[in-house]
Amino acid sequence: MIPRYSRPEMVAIWSPETKYRIWFEIEAHACDALAAIGVIPKSAAETIWEKGGKAEFDVARIDEIEAVTKHDVIAFLTHLAEFVGPDGRFVHQGMTSSDVLDTCFNVQLVRATDLLLSDIDKLLEALKRRAFEHKDTVTIGRSHGIHAEPTTFGVKLAQAYAEFDRNKTRLLEARDEIATCAISGAVGTFANIDPRVEEHVAAAMGLKPEPVSTQVIPRDRHAMYFATLGVIASSIERLAIEIRHLQRTEVLEAEEYFSPGQKGSSAMPHKRNPVLTENLTGLARMVRSYALPAMENVALWHERDISHSSVERMIGPDATVTLDFALARMTSVIDKLLVYPENMMKNMNKFRGLVHSQRVLLALTQAGVSREDAYRLVQRNAMKVWEEGKDFLEELLGDEEVRAALTEEDIREKFDLGYHTKHVDTIFSRVFG
């Protein structure tokens, strides 16, 4: 985790202090269940909560013990016993390290997901507000980067809203997928611990029992989770690239907010660069890159191995922290985005009516001209605009073959911008309800 691209609340979820507190809660809840079914004394469970609950776990002390034991969970349990005393012998009864590690990891992912869901809600709010603000702001739509037909800037933002709304649904499904608990003991058979303990711990930690844990929670769940984060990151990049293109000097239809005192270049004082959206493009690459190792973690040996462990210690914090930062940054970009309707209209008119070519094509076919001939007539006049800077409307009006099929009124009517935006309300009702 790089501080430059991190936010404190998400980082705190992955701190050693938080991890050890979750480990304690898992063990203590298990002790409650063990006491309830008569495996350990109820007084022991109470002591563990009382003394362990007040404990300030010393990360350095646990590291010191682990340096000898070469086992992180044993080091933690040894440190916990220093607080609890003799009743510490009842901690971890019938459990294995994976019970603690896997359940904790999923608790952390669930908590991280709740922050990410909140992030998406804030981004959706910003996108919706700006979409309605520019619902009728006409701009040129582009395919292959080339002028196509008119749309509105609000429709562009509505598309982004719909995409992130789908991402919210995906993330909710990923949260449900990852919210499982395993307290099943060695190779997951419950031979040394009653399944009721797992059910109690799961309920206490806001999870559900893993149907078959084989000592580890199956990593297909995690593969799906991190793939979902990658999809969300890709949506961030799609929106970021749109803004980057619109900010190019020769386009300048929208622009990242440039704050007072901000500098764009160490060498060129005139520069106003799309640094935030460029940064988001880079961060999206990183989040996507974590999906592949998560998928490779699915294939573990037999009931378990730990080849997944080192991977998850990296991708768990890095993917969620990075995506949290990226979503917040994108929300800020959208919230403050500078939009230039005058430039949108200026760019639309740059090629003097070419954007209406399809309407003329369709009008000719409806007037009885074959599609092949209609296409030839429209393209012939369009090329004069591209190559000679002619006016498309004037060229059509002066083309005898075109005029043989269409009246002047027919042709002029095909240059009405309102024709292209007549269904914007329908699109908005579909997206926003």
Major sheet: 2 strands, antiparallel
Q: What is the topology, as strand order, of the major beta sheet?
A: 1-2
Instruction: Evaluate the radius of gyration.
Output: 30 Å
Question: How many angstroms does the end-to-end distance come to?
Answer: 39 Å
- Unreliable spans are none
Category from helices, strands and their pairing: mainly alpha
The pLDDT mean sits at: 95
What is the global morphology?
elongated
Task: Give the beta-strand count.
Answer: 6
Hey, roughly how much beta strand do the residues contain?
under 5%
Helix proportion: 55-70%
Number of alpha- plus pi-helical segments = 19
Helix and strand pattern:
HHHHHHEEHEHEHEHHHEHHHHHHH
Task: Report on this structure.
This protein has 19 helices and 6 strands. The two termini are 39 Å apart. Helix 4 (59-69) packs across helix 5. The longest helix is centred in the first third of the chain and has 37 residues, at 97-133. Strand 1 and strand 2 form a beta hairpin. With 433 residues, the protein is mainly alpha-helical. Strands 1-2 form a two-stranded antiparallel sheet. Strands 3-4 form a two-stranded parallel ribbon. The mean pLDDT is 95. Helices cover 64% and strands 5% of the residues. It has helices at residues 8-13, 16-36, 42-54, 59-69, 72-84, 97-133, 153-178, 195-204, 220-247, 275-289, 291-296, 307-336, 341-348, 357-366, 371-388, 392-397, 400-405, 408-413, 424-432; strands spanning 138-143, 146-152, 180-181, 208-209, 254-255, 338-339.
